[in-house]
Amino acid sequence: MLRIGIDIDDTLCDFTGACNEYVTPYLSKQLKKSDYITMKYSHLWKKSESESQRLIKEFVYSSIDDLIPFPYSQECLTNLKKSGKFEFYAITWKV
């Protein structure tokens, strides 16, 4: 069986767009998804590293189940899994 690690964030669903919507009320200015050119959210949000991590964790724990998968991502993984040839592992750095 082939093991496949899949980065969920912005690979299977729009994590960045949803996270941006969640944190906007906590920021001094509204950001666009295209502003996220770095994974160092603390610089982008002008927050401390600990405050940024708190906001990300808050978002993940409250909203992760509401993320909408990208078109065909579920179907593709389902078909691969049904083949019995693959084992999947979720990969993320955010929490």
Characterise this structure.
- The chain has 95 residues and is an alpha+beta fold.
- The protein has one domain.
- It is built from four helices and two strands.
- It has a two-stranded parallel ribbon with strand order 1-2.
- The two termini are 28 Å apart.
Instruction: Note the main sheet.
Output: 2 strands, parallel
Strand content: 5-15%
The ordered H/E elements are: EHHHHE
Report the radius of gyration as a whole number of Å.
Answer: 15 Å
The first-to-last residue Cα distance is 28 Å
Class inferred from helices and paired strands: alpha+beta
Which helices and strands, and how do they pair?
Blueprint: E1 2-7, H1 15-23, H2 41-45, H3 49-63, H4 73-82, E2 86-91
Parallel strand pairs: 1-2
How is this structure best summarized?
With 95 residues, the protein is of the alpha+beta class. Helix content is 41%, strand content 13%.
Which key phrases capture this entry?
95 residues; two-stranded parallel ribbon; 13% strand; alpha+beta; 4 helices
